[in-house]
Amino acid sequence: MAKTPSPFRPLNISVLTVSDTRSLAEDTSGDALISLLTEAGHTLQDRQIVKDDVYAMRAVVSNWIADSKTHVVLITGGTGFYSRDSTPEAITPLLDKEVDGFGELFRQLSYEEIGTSTIQSRALAGLANKTLIFCLPGSTGACRTAWNGIIKEQLDARHRPCNFVTMLLGPLPEGQGA
């Protein structure tokens, strides 16, 4: 008996831009992520911009992690090596588990676009309280690379052999797909 294909299951995704200089009007990376996630069929749960401050980031992300309506958090900015770049330091302590391969795969894809400059990205991902968190560089191009090359498929229940959707939403009720 053939398995019934899994249906698409939309996720609620929050977007956080980390920047000391951008406002909503200049937030092209946040805009790109919102456009990409909604085009894929997901829902924007919330959007915020915070300064590159460890405690400001943790406050926003902690609230999203505690909110059962938020399934995924996309963070753009603060993953480089400048003195103010502190997204990995802010988010790592909140994670229950890291998605170890995300940073490596992102840098592999990014190498094709920007060469060895990709080593200056500390992109990472992990799970916290059944919320998937991706920390991406602040450039619009890097956000598109991460979404199109990795995140989009992993947030689609139809992607095989595995994806994160069942982990985030739980299994489908009996008779509603694989």
TrEMBL record:
Protein name listed in UniProt: Molybdenum cofactor biosynthesis protein B
Pathway assigned in UniProt: Cofactor biosynthesis; molybdopterin biosynthesis
Record domain MoaB/Mog: where: 14-158
Organism (species): Rhodanobacter aciditrophus
Function, as annotated: May be involved in the biosynthesis of molybdopterin.
Family assignment from sequence similarity: Belongs to the MoaB/Mog family.
Gene3D superfamilies per the UniProt record, alphabetical: MoaB/Mog-like domain
Gene: moaB
SMART domains in the cross-refs: MoCF_biosynth (SM00852)
InterPro entries linked to this entry: MoaB, MoaB/Mog-like_dom_sf, MoaB/Mog_dom, MoaB_proteobac, MoCF_biosynth_CS
Keywords: Molybdenum cofactor biosynthesis
Keyword Amino-acid biosynthesis recorded: no
Pfam families: MoCF_biosynth
Taxon lineage: Bacteria, Pseudomonadati, Pseudomonadota, Gammaproteobacteria, Lysobacterales
